[in-house]
Amino acid sequence: MARTERIADTRAHTGEGPLWHPDEERLYWVDIPAGRLFQYDPATDEHAVAYETDGAPIGGYTIESDGALLLFTRRRVERLVPGESETHLVAEIDAKTRFNDVIADPDGRVFCGTMPGENHLGDLYRLDTDGSVSLVIENVDIPNGMGFSSGLETFYFTESEANRIFAFDYDRATGTISNKRTFIDRSADEGIPDGMTVDANDYVWSARWNGGKVVRYAPSGEVVTEFDLPARKVSSVTFGGPEYTDLYLTTALTDGDRATEGDGAGALFRIPDVGVSGIPEFRSDIA
Question: 159 and 114 in contact (C-beta within 8 Å)?
């Protein structure tokens, strides 16, 4: 039985977006509505707030080619050099709402989703390396976790309120996605699919909001492994550590009550050495 460790008890409202930064050998993650970016150093077993906005949410971020962080807030994309306290505007996207989950592709572009609003659903955009923006998918009921197959021929995309993970053909030369089909279609009572990652064996790991677990799927869509967490709202998952063998998971404490949300809700968890390894996330390279 894998050992689950609570390593940063941040009590985040919506912990999200864990990413291992190999240059710094640290893990970063955010509390979206609080606009806080956290960092965890496994060498010292210490965590801290690395950056905090002036009230804007941080819906997601990527690691840039030079090691800086690209923060996606509300219609704004800002560059943050780790250790500094000021950001610099990189791009503005005419989105209706805040961003929610983003991912860099193999050539430095960024796919970025936006949340539904009062009278509209969310959308998926692509920010290209020259700063131009394309609307990729409209009317998404909470765009969420994304990933790429190891051969880079498939793009995975989670639509949370539809309880589905979709697969698309992916054209690396243009960043275009096409041929949408369902990869995973699960009942809502199993937990809502949220953040995800793809491991070195091409298996998909999906965090389960209200499901209290992370699920590993074979490329065929078959469930092969599940790890339970004490927190109900498991929001995202990534691999980290020098060999990318540790699984890091973010959770949420949306109503502030651990009696209902589970022990450690809002904390960062780690499952050491899950028996498979991940791969480094792609880096953005936005002009």
Answer: no
CB-CB contact of 207 with 201 (8 Å): no
**What residues are labeled active site?**
194
Q: What's this model's pTM, rounded to 2 decimal places?
A: 0.96
Q: How far apart are CA 152 and CA 230, in angstroms?
A: 34
Closest CA to 193 of 167, 173, 175, 213: 213
Pairing between β-strand 234-240 and β-strand 192-198 as defined by DSSP bridges: unpaired
Structure tokens at 58: 């941080």
Q: Give per-residue pLDDT as tens, 24-71.
A: 999 999 999 999 999 999 999 999 999 999 999 999 999 999 999 999
Specify whether the CB–CB gap between 61 and 67 falls below 8 A: no
Which of the 8 DSSP states describes residue 188? G
**CA–CA separation, 97 and 34 (whole Å):** 16
CA distances from 189 to 146, 193, 212, 232 (A): 22, 11, 11, 12
Residue 141 structure tokens? 């009921």
CB 47 within 8 A of CB 8: yes
In this predicted structure, the answer to whether residue 189 has a pLDDT above a threshold of 80 is no
- Which residue in this structure is represented by tokens 């509209």? 120
Residue 107 CB partners (closer than 8 Å, separation 6+): 129, 172, 175, 285
Q: Which residue from 10, 15, 7, 55 is spatially nearest to 31, judged by alpha carbons?
A: 15
Cα separation values, 63 from 79, 81, 102, 276, Å: 10, 10, 11, 23
| Cα–chain center distance at 185 | 20
Q: How far is the C-alpha of 100 from the C-alpha of 188, rounded, in Å?
A: 20
Q: Structure tokens of 109?
A: 């572009």
CA distance linking residue 248 with residue 265, whole number of Å: 14
Percent of the chain predicted with pLDDT > 90: 95
Q: Mean pLDDT over residues 105-133, rounded?
A: 96
